[in-house]
Amino acid sequence: MSQTAAPDYSYAGEKVERVALAATDVRFDDRGLIPAVVQQVGTGEVLMVAWMNEESLRLTLTTGTTWFWSRSRQELWNKGATSGNMQKVVRVLVDCDADTLVIEVDSPGPACHTGHRSCFFRELVADENTTPSAGV
Amino acid sequence: MSQTAAPDYSYAGEKVERVALAATDVRFDDRGLIPAVVQQVGTGEVLMVAWMNEESLRLTLTTGTTWFWSRSRQELWNKGATSGNMQKVVRVLVDCDADTLVIEVDSPGPACHTGHRSCFFRELVADENTTPSAGV
To answer: Do B121 and A17 touch (CB under 8 A)?
Structure first.
């Protein structure tokens, strides 16, 4: 019975294995960064995707709020420290080849700097569907 | 009443704006790639994160299945073409600064090459939580 695991220890209907940061070869890219998908727990909404370096990942794991590396400002960034829209970390998941993270959070407020709940508020469609007379 | 939009045109509880590929300045990185979060429609499970170049994005928008750029093989990759676990594209979302995608799909089969439903089957924890006697 693979579905008897407690909800906290399953994802996508399968049991989740716990691995320690020190025992995991997390693969940061040549800039020292790893993409982090921030997902609202419960609803599954993808709120944003941002980048972490090793220090921000460690802070995220130990402080219970999300920390990222701002590529534009070249500094650590504690999400919501200014706006008040902090994200409470529920769980950090790492993928099969350890080069991407999913951060499950509880984010009561908006996650996007535009004020939207999610940064993904636009649907991208093939040109012909919306610009039939554009004469591409 | 912001919640009267049809489900197909909302995400994270907000109305989704449709934008055409040709009218959107999608920002590929210096390798010509953009990260794509693949999410199961309905459940919200993040199945995988992979990379798209401009051609794979266009193919994903026009063929109705997911196409990625394999960084290791340096070639286009139609997900599931070999394994049979194709992903049917429901919607492509682009974020506020147009440098990340969410691909909503219907993926009946596993998405991970390990056979897992999702590539995110491991929880990453701070060292002290799982290795209390490791003497770090």
So the answer is: yes
What are the strands, taking DSSP E only, across B53-116?
67-70, 75-78, 88-94, 101-106
Work out how many CB contacts closer than 8 A connect A with B: 210
Residue from the list A48, A91, A125 with its beta carbon closest to the beta carbon of B18: A125
Rounded alpha-carbon distances, angstroms, from residue A69 to A33, A53, A58, A133, B81:
8, 6, 12, 43, 36
Q: Do B96 and A116 touch (CB under 8 A)?
A: yes
Contact A12, B47 (CB under 8 A): yes
pLDDT 10s digits, B43-95: 999 999 999 999 999 999 999 999 999 999 999 999 999 989 999 999 999 99
From A43, A50, A58, A136, select the one nearest B49 (Cα to Cα).
A50
Q: What is the ipTM, given to two decimal places? A: 0.89
pTM, 2 dp: 0.89
Mean pLDDT (whole number) for A56-80 = 97
- Name the residue facing B131 among A22, A35, A101 (closest C-beta): A22
State how far the Cα of A129 lies from the Cα of B4, in Å rounded to an integer. 24
Q: Which of B102, B118, B121 sits opposite A46 (nearest CB)?
A: B102
Q: Give the residue among B126, B119, B106 at the shortest CA–CA distance from B64.
A: B106
